[in-house]
UniProtKB/TrEMBL annotation:
Name of the molecule in the record: Bifunctional protein FolD
Keyword check for S-adenosyl-L-methionine: no
Native organism taxonomy: Bacteria, Bacillati, Bacillota, Clostridia, Eubacteriales
GO BP annotation list: L-histidine biosynthetic process; methionine biosynthetic process; purine nucleotide biosynthetic process; tetrahydrofolate interconversion
Subunit description: Homodimer.
Summary of the function given for this chain in its UniProt record: Catalyzes the oxidation of 5,10-methylenetetrahydrofolate to 5,10-methenyltetrahydrofolate and then the hydrolysis of 5,10-methenyltetrahydrofolate to 10-formyltetrahydrofolate.
Domain Tetrahydrofolate dehydrogenase/cyclohydrolase NAD(P)-binding intervals: 140-280
Location of the Tetrahydrofolate dehydrogenase/cyclohydrolase catalytic domain: 6-121
The keyword Oxidoreductase belongs to this UniProt entry's keyword annotation: yes
Gene3D superfamilies (alphabetical): Leucine Dehydrogenase, chain A, domain 1 (3.40.50.10860), NAD(P)-binding Rossmann-like Domain (3.40.50.720)
Catalytic activity reported: (6R)-5,10-methenyltetrahydrofolate + H2O = (6R)-10-formyltetrahydrofolate + H(+); (6R)-5,10-methylene-5,6,7,8-tetrahydrofolate + NADP(+) = (6R)-5,10-methenyltetrahydrofolate + NADPH
Gene that this sequence comes from: folD
Residues noted as binding NADP(+) in the record, renumbered to the chain: 166-168, 232
Length: 282
């Protein structure tokens, strides 16, 4: 089977157009413009690529963006001080802190500092807890983008067996929870998983978020499986996914490319979350 491409770029283009219309209307009728603050500490290449993408998307959708590029040496205290300032600013509706954080900064303390109603990447334990319990909340952008892409292509999840590779708080765990909410049977795999190949080959859906370029090979994929590649690792200036695309497309029924797959959805979901934060939680 030669798989069909899940075209994140195309789907996100449609979503962004409709978000732009909503934002323009908001400006006309209420004289307000959404604002997003993004904080990046240090020079992680994949995070830099994300910041560049989302500056562009903010321009496309008429959202004000405030980017704070802080040095890797920034103290936890200074970072939290900045977050506290942003928490009370009226022109900032969403706050995104880019991961990974430098080693001396505790991500849990940072997550707790973000005001839940401005927490557009669902990072705060209040939002994470609500997601876990199936309550309405701000859902992390990448997992939300994965789910939207799956639903846009009419892919049924009920009763399907899904594997998630990775268990981070920002991708692996929330995407597993969202798949479970859609009645999939979910296996969460990580670096200590024994026989990863055996787990994956039995699955109808694979979502990989390990950050290991090219490590999902066709011998790990069941004929006709849906393969979603979240990985974005910069290798020699090129963005690489976790999946060996050329090999795996021959077996999958659907597959996401990198770039042009999940990453493109993530930025669209971020703008959607800024609007949601603005309209629902303030
Ligand atoms: N497209 C997008 O929009 C986004 C892309 N990303 C990308 O997704 C990737 C993952 O991000 P993130 O979740 O933050 O990363 P983390 O580094 O926090 O998590 C990686 C996870 O992968 C697991 N893992 C690592 N190696 C293996 C292996 N060989 N076999 C099985 N599991 C493994 C780790 O297991 P363990 O827990 O045991 O260490 C860990 O749970 C990165 O490439 C990142 O850049 C991230 C966010 C958004
Ligand atoms: N709190 C937090 N949340 C994140 O979601 C998060 C993060 N930290 N840290 C870094 C990673 C990486 N990430 C990307 C998202 C979109 C693109 C993206 O838009 N990529 C485009 C192409 C970009 C290009 O071609 O340069 C695409 O895939 O089509 C890339 C990378 C989000 N991350």
């Amino acid at each position: 089977m030669k798989g069909k491409i899940l075209d994140g770029r195309e789907v996100s283009k449609r979503i962004k157009e409709s978000l732009k219309e909503r934002i323009e209307k908001m400006k006309e009728e209420r004289g307000i413009t959404p604002g997003l603050a993004v904080i990046i500490t240090g020079g992680n290449p994949s995070a830099i690529s994300y910041v560049r993408s989302l500056e562009k998307v903010c321009r496309q959708t008429c959202v004000n963006s405030f980017v704070y590029e802080l040095p890797a040496e920034t103290s936890e205290e200074d970072l939290i001080k900045l977050i506290n300032e942003l928490n009370i600013r009226d022109d900032v509706n969403g706050i995104l802190v880019q991961l990974p954080l430098p080693k001396h900064i505790n991500p849990e303390e940072v997550a707790k500092a973000i005001k839940p109603s401005k927490d557009v990447d669902g990072f705060n334990p209040i939002n994470a807890g609500k997601l876990f319990r199936g309550e309405k909340c701000l859902v992390p952008c990448t997992p939300k983008g994965v789910m939207r892409l799956i639903s846009e292509y009419g892919i049924e999840l009920k009763g399907k067996k899904a594997a998630v590779v990775g268990r981070s708080n920002i991708v692996g765990k929330p995407v597993s929870q969202l798949l479970l909410n859609k009645d999939a049977t979910v296996v969460i795999c990580h670096s200590k998983t024994k026989e990863l190949d055996e787990e994956l080959i039995s699955c109808d859906i694979i979502v990989s978020a390990a950050g290991k370029p090219g490590f999902i090979k066709s011998n790990m994929v069941k004929e006709g499986a849906v393969v979603i590649d979240v990985g974005t690792t910069m290798v020699e200036g090129k963005l690489m996914g976790d999946v060996d695309f050329e090999e795996v497309i021959e077996k999958a029924s659907f597959i996401t490319p990198v770039p042009g797959g999940v990453g493109a959805m993530t930025t669209a979901m971020l703008i959607e979350n800024v609007l949601e934060a603005m309209e629902t939680y303030d």
